[in-house]
């Protein structure tokens, strides 16, 4: 599948959230819903598209923009923006898109998207066929230093704009440090810089706060029984390999970890290894 085959759509949820998504594939095929991370968008999954089968029988691939990112508008300040609201929005979207297919969806999630996908699978354990999680996070609300760092990031974006967050993501947090000896392609840094810079600044700030909100606690991972693939970069400093190795056994079903050659952007940095790992997950999930 190529990016040119994607069509653009909007969905308004029961609570009034307006979600933009890109779609490719037959509505009669199994949904494959892809969720991006903080500062990302539906474009996060562009490198993986050629590896996903959408010709019948294939997958009905849906790439979602969270509120305030990509083409999804930011809800008003009075509207809830939280991990819970993201799960509710995705549930609403999946329900609307599942009217012509009886197959349970597969969820992909990068970073923040991985958090949302895990919460979704814990909330609806019988309604998910499989999970592919790329550098997912966990609740950090109980970690004072991490919580403060995210709150400071939100404050900085409100005070100084989104550019500083874009530069930090591209030059520091998302890729291996120069001291590791790993060379990072300039186009990869630029892709992340442009993605974060295109975010709605207030949406970015509110999402930072949502991630470390005191109401955000880890789901009951043991209720998740579908096949679950964790992909983590060997030099990821945001979702370190040892943390992902500790998370995987908490799930109640078949769960495993694949370590690839990357920082926090495995889909971008090691596409081939990610595609191979995803292929195994999709087979275990029952295929298209």
TrEMBL record:
Skewed-composition ranges (Polar residues): 167-182
Entry-linked Pfam families: Abhydrolase_1 (PF00561)
Region annotated Disordered, chain positions: 167-187
Keyword Hydrolase appears in the UniProt entry: yes
Keyword hit for Disulfide bond: no
Keywords in alphabetical order: Hydrolase
Cellular component per GO, a single term: membrane
Cited InterPro entries: AB_hydrolase_1, AB_hydrolase_fold, AB_hydrolase_sf, Epox_hydrolase-like
GO molecular function annotation: hydrolase activity
Gene3D superfamilies associated with the record: alpha/beta hydrolase
Domain of life: Eukaryota
Domain AB hydrolase-1: residue ranges: 31-139
Protein's recorded name: Alpha beta hydrolase fold family
């Amino acid at each position: 599948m190529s990016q040119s085959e994607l069509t653009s759509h909007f969905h308004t949820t029961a609570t009034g959230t307006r979600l933009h998504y890109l779609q490719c594939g037959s509505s009669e095929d199994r949904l494959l819903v892809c969720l991006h991370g903080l500062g990302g968008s539906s474009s996060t999954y562009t490198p993986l598209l050629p590896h996903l089968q959408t010709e019948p029988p294939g997958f009905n691939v849906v790439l979602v923009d969270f509120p305030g990112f990509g083409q999804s508008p930011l809800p008003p300040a009075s509207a809830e923006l939280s991990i819970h609201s993201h799960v509710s929005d995705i549930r609403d979207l999946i329900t609307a898109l599942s009217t012509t297919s009886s197959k349970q969806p597969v969820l992909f999630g990068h970073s923040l998207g991985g958090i949302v996908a895990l919460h979704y699978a814990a909330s609806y354990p019988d309604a998910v066929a499989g999970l592919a999680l790329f550098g997912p996070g966990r609740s950090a609300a109980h970690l004072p230093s991490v919580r403060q760092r995210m709150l400071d990031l939100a404050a900085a974006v409100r005070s100084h704009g989104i550019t500083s967050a874009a530069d930090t993501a591209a030059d520091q947090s998302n890729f291996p440090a120069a001291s590791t000896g790993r060379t990072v392609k300039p186009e990869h840094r630029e892709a992340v810089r442009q993605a974060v810079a295109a975010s709605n600044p207030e949406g970015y700030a509110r999402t930072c706060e949502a991630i470390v909100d005191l109401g955000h606690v880890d789901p009951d991972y043991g209720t998740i029984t579908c096949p679950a693939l964790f992909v983590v970069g060997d030099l990821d400093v945001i979702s370190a390999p040892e943390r992902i190795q500790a998370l995987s056994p908490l799930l109640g079903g078949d769960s495993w970890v694949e370590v690839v050659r990357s920082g926090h952007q495995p889909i971008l940095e090691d596409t081939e290894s990610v595609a191979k790992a995803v292929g195994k997950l999709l087979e275990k999930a029952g295929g298209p």
